[in-house]
User: Fold this.
Amino acid sequence: MQFDTKIAIVIRTDLQAWQKLNVAAFLTSGIAAAFPECIGDPYGDASGTSYHALIGQPILIYGADGPALSRALDRALTRNVKPAVYTEDMFKTTHDAANREAVRAVARADLNLVGIAVRAERKVIDKIVDGLKFHG
Assistant:
């Protein structure tokens, strides 16, 4: 199935494995919260067990170093695509309000980004992630 939109997550490649997974999970929740229409129907198995609904389209995950991640953020904002962001400072906090304060305390140009997530029209996402490779 061809979707009109794409979801892309860009994660800094020098993180530890647990950090990458944590960042991907948090950023995906940002997309789900911003675009509830991307959530599919709940799942169920042949035994009658019910499961939560998931995002109903593929999520592409790219790797980047710090400068490429900042470039992707700039490309998104230039194209009026509002991203979800995760910064290195957020690893030091223990709750959502502290996460927001950690981002609010730093100017955009100085954010120590470890990941962003975006959802937009396919061609727009292609321009935002141009030159990046899928995360290995």
